[in-house]
Amino acid sequence: MSTATSSTPPRKGEVYFLSHGGPPTMFDTASAPYKAWQKYGKMVEAARPRGLVVVSAHWENPSHSAGVVAVNTDASNPLVYDFYGFPKNYYEQKFTSHGDPQMLKDVTAALKSSGMDVSTAKRGLDHGVWVPFLVAFAGKTDIPVVQVSLPGDSDPVSAAKLGKALASLRDEGYGIMGSGQAVHNLRDYMTGGRGSYGDAFLQAIGSALHSDSPTDGAIGLFRHPAYRQAHPTPEHLLPLVVAAAAADPKTDALQDIFVQPNGPLGWGMWTWKPKAAL
């Protein structure tokens, strides 16, 4: 990874949203989602970010205040095995990454300057981050990774505020990534439901993100007729709002990484790249 010098301005960071599915996908090497994670990894390595700021569905700040988020300060990025009932080898998987003191300062400063209160936690990376990253980066990366929590109020407006707060970090060369699931009705999926609502909601996401105002479009998904079926709880859609709000439709080009209907567990992955870099 190249490092910007004082005479070379950093390349503006890109924005990503990944669907992270379930842990079994990290072993399904022939699947389309697995290959999409690999494609994402190549994109990140080609973009050479100073670091990746990640926001996952699986970390919501315990505070219910809209303006309070937590930042992981454990630079060793230990793994959080926050899934249950899988074979032993799932809990033996390793992904090696690290944080960075300057990046931590930059992230904290960006959040505070946008009016957000920041708490800290020695927590590590949950499976919404490390499972796709294990595949994307073949088990390890030298790109610094710092995870930031979602606000704890489950409000898409608060998620948008977080995304806009992180957006300024792009000018310093950092990439921003949200990790959730485009369609996430796990109970329906586990009981064999067909999830006919999933296709319609996935199409609605595409329309929202490709609109003139992807932030408003992403927030509007929470009013979509199929929303409650596609997302019985909001946490897997909120990181998409964060990503959309961190992007700038005037200067970024949206690209599909991978979009595939899958009933109640639909896949969607997107990236926003600065048009000037294309």
UniProtKB/TrEMBL annotation:
<keyword id="KW-0862">Zinc</keyword>
<keyword id="KW-0479">Metal-binding</keyword>
<comment type="similarity">
    <text>Belongs to the DODA-type extradiol aromatic ring-opening dioxygenase family.</text>
</comment>
<dbReference type="Pfam" id="PF02900">
    <property type="entry name" value="LigB"/>
</dbReference>
<keyword id="KW-0560">Oxidoreductase</keyword>
<dbReference type="GO" id="GO:0008270">
    <property type="term" value="F:zinc ion binding"/>
</dbReference>
<protein>
    <submittedName>
        <fullName>Extradiol aromatic ring-opening dioxygenase</fullName>
    </submittedName>
</protein>
<keyword id="KW-0223">Dioxygenase</keyword>
<dbReference type="GO" id="GO:0016702">
    <property type="term" value="F:oxidoreductase activity, acting on single donors with incorporation of molecular oxygen, incorporation of two atoms of oxygen"/>
</dbReference>
<dbReference type="InterPro" id="IPR004183">
    <property type="entry name" value="Xdiol_dOase_suB"/>
</dbReference>
<dbReference type="InterPro" id="IPR014436">
    <property type="entry name" value="Extradiol_dOase_DODA"/>
</dbReference>
<dbReference type="GO" id="GO:0008198">
    <property type="term" value="F:ferrous iron binding"/>
</dbReference>
<feature type="domain" description="Extradiol ring-cleavage dioxygenase class III enzyme subunit B">
    <location>
        <begin position="16"/>
        <end position="254"/>
    </location>
</feature>
